[in-house]
UniProtKB/TrEMBL annotation:
It comes from Morus notabilis. It comes from the Eukaryota. The lineage of its organism: Eukaryota, Viridiplantae, Streptophyta, Embryophyta, Tracheophyta. GO terms for cellular component: plant-type cell wall. This is Beta-galactosidase. The keyword Signal applies. One of its GO terms (biological process) is carbohydrate metabolic process. The keyword Transcription regulation does not apply.
Amino acid sequence: MGLRVQMRNMNFMFLVFFSWAFSSATASVTYDHRAIVINGKRRILISGSIHYPRSTPEMWPDLIQKAKDGGLDVIQTYVFWNGHEPSEGKYYFENRYDLVKFIKLVHQAGLYVHLRIGPYICGEWNFGGFPVWLKYVPGIAFRTDNGPFKWHMQRFTEKIVNIMKAEGLFETQGGPIIMSQIENEYGPVEWEIGAPGKAYTKWAAQMAVGLNTGVPWVMCKQDDAPDPVIDACNGFYCENYKPNQVYKPKLWTEAWTGWYTEFGGPVPHRPAEDLAFAVARFIQNGGAFFNYYMYHGGTNFGRTAGGPFIATSYDYDAPLDEFGLPRDPKWGHLRDLHRAIKLAESALVSSDPTVTKLGNNQEAHVFRSNTGACAAFLANYDTNYDVKVSFGNGRYNLPPWSISILPDCKTAVYNTARLGAQSTVMWMTPVYKGFSWESYNEETASANSGDTTALDGLWEQVYVTRDNTDYLWYLTDITIGSDEGFLKTGNYPLLNIFSAGHALHVFVNGQLTGSAYGSLDKPKLTFTQNIKLRAGVNKLALLSVAVGLPNVGLHFETWNAGVLGPVTLNGLNTGTWDMSKWKWSYKIGLKGEKLGLHTVSGSSSVEWGQGSFLAKHQPLTWYKTTFNAPGGNGPLALDMNSMGKGQIWINGRSIGRHWPAYKASGGCGPCNYAGTFTDKKCRTDCGQPSQRWYHVPRSWLNPTGNLLVVFEEWGGDPNWINLDQRTTGTVCADIHEGQPTMENWGALGSGKVAVAKAHLWCPPGHKISQIKFASYGVPQGTCGNYRAGSCHAHKSYDVPQKNCVGQQSCTVIVAPQFFGGDPCPGVAKKLSLEAICS
Ligand code: GAL
């Protein structure tokens, strides 16, 4: 054992000399086996993804500050090509796409940037970040050894690098960018396509390195990333990841903090304890850099959601919620983890870990520097049992599936399964009810009318729309002879429609007869229904609706959308008619879109109905109202529970697609943090809308007269739409006696372990008005549904009430003398508290 460790350390010392040098001595970013090296100093870097177009520039400073307060060193973002080059050669870097401003704000806050240029970015973003026009470049094939693709990819990558250089944003120029990324998770694609994939990988790496940014490049999920590009891991766990060369550090570019929501799917959650455990596992195995994907997920405004079927909210169960508020306990628990890691940093960067067994399923990982620093991680991988382990001269209690961090090899300051941070339950409180709505009926399009184009057969939707709108009408006339048998029997013909997706509304003679839609896993759909036809000409109008373009999959640029057929009508005198080859008329987009009904000027160009003329539960209806901004500065969202499917605009800006009528299915269940996490574990909201609330950025509102426009496809009742404010409802603490705490660090030297304390706080301007629950003993449940257990101190409420009510923050010591004595000696106890902030 001793020899093995010694050998390893020698090996390590040897490697230290062979680091990649990228630039001058003044400002440099290099790496070696152990870490990213900034200006000659090895660092353990803590990073989090914040995607600039998924929030507003007004939100950026606060998000970045909260990331800094949460203990982050680095902000990671993708670069969103289709936002920056919406049509070929026409660039856009304003507003939510002001990349330079975003990076400068990060710099001002004193944080670094990891810039993932891609330009393929996946990210549940429309078309994986590619502009749709790119698909129609002659001879192109995406993400392979293809001339036109490589030309455009290089052109855009250069464009971004040149902007960064011109602004002096690379670390070597005194800026914050310490790393970039080329491509994204290309390894699996390369594996499938073979030789051209390998050639493309080599080309991409060389092209990127040739841009001389002065800072390292990363390729994630790319086992064969060519030197000097560093390969990196993405996943829920990455502790066993090994870079492809020993002289590269171990990077985790995406530590998934939760998962995305899809329309029709439940809402994913990842327990803070498991996320902290995964990160601690990565660090104890020699990890050098990890990035939370996402730290703030935000919102897929407009039509930026990919998928198809990715929801408008990209909350991701991230440490900062969609609205930019801390999600606790996750945010606070990770902040504490980061403090513990930073206390250990000097030992961590000095060696590889020495691993020893502490039990069947328990290990110690120890790091030492030659100046005497020592840090230990004590791990219990068992999913069921608490285990007491001996380490050094101490005894340490390790809850199931947890790691304790001892930054000095003696004092446990943090355990991944013991929350020191408070939990909060957020409420959506109505601040504006009873909008006074007006409605306008979108007309059903009809074949051969002036504004349509007739074509033979069925055409692919994106080819026709170029994704300038979600909507494409497929229109034809069905002429029924007066001798058709069904006219007498009433056995109406059966209409069969096969569509490549994503949703379809079928109108016969102007009436909606039915709708069909797919899902993320199965975007294709079929529509089968008997339709009422009359003798003579019947108008068939199919409104095909796209719900975001695919963002991942082999050659996803070739996947189709729209009614591609066959379309058949069955049960006629001559049997079945195949309508697929008929002449169809096409109309791109809605009339209301053309009129700009979502804008102030457009909305005043038509007559709207109100009062008794207000359309309710009618398909294809536009609604508008005006309202004054509510007071306060809390985040706002529209409660769309009473609506079906469509889009929403505030003052002409699209806040995204709404689809509360798509209810979540797929399985929800109880959630235990212990055990391997998957995106199917810990989901909520089954049977409920996948997304009920839609973020309205404060900065999009004027003090008075805001125009709110909703386009509704299915039919709904707008009178129940509310504007809600997100507020902190209740706050909870769940503190075990003797649990590791940062306060132990202060007690160092005295040989004592600090007594555990419960801390509660309300946001600024709010106070604790009531203690809703308090139990010292063995209380059960989680924040929002605690109950007393078999052991409960009857004086549990006294101290919390005295210390907390009327205060913005308070502390309660978790020890028997504060609760009228020990209610069950010999039993491990904790204090659970729930308080209301008002
Ligand atoms: C990763 C991908 C990210 C994102 C994530 C899921 O594989 O790199 O862009 O799509 O999956 O949220």
